[in-house]
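JOB MANIFEST
job_type = single_chain_structure
chain_count = 1
residues = 174
[input]
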Amino acid sequence: MKLHSGQFFSSIAMVALLAGALFLASGAAAEELVPADRVVVHKAERKLYLYHGSQLIGSYKVALGLNPQGPKQREKDYRTPEGRYFLSRRNTRSDFFLAIQVSYPNKQDERYAHRHGWAPGGAIMIHGLPNVPKHTPLYYAETDWTDGCIALSNSDMVEVWMRTQDNTPIDIFP
C-alpha cells in the first residue's frame, strides 16, 4: 500500500504524539491518566465526558454529524446516534487522526431501520481531524461537520484514546 505524503506525515505525527503521551504516562503525570470506565456524550452541549466511577476525569468539545438533531435512523442521514453503545475497536489507519468505533447500530437500531425499509448505516466513530483537511481549522473547530461521528481535536483524541479501551460503554444523549 502506497501512502500519500499527507498520510505519511500524519502517521509520523500520530506516532510522535502517542510516544510523547506514553512518556508522560510513565512519569509523574501517570496519576492524571486515570482510565475511563464510561463515556458520555451530550449532543446539545457538544461535549464528551469521561468518567471513572462517578468521578468526572475529562471533558472535551466535540463536533457531530451535519444534521445533529434527533437520533441516527438510517444510512446517510448525517445524524449522530443516541442511546447506549460500546467502544468496539480502534483504528490507527483511518482517514482521520485516530478512530475508535462505536457499536452502532445495535439490535434496536437495526429493527427500527428495517421496519422502515432503510439501511441503518454504520461506521460511527469517535475520531480526530481529517488527515487531509478540506476546510480551514476554524471550520472544524466551530461546525458540526461529520457524517454522524463524534469528532475531537487531535490532542483531545490522544487523551480519549489513552484513557479508554474496547468495550467501554458510551451513552449518547440528545
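[summary]
The domain at 5-173 is CATH 2.40.440.10 (L,D-transpeptidase catalytic domain-like).
The radius of gyration is 16 Å.
exit_status = 0
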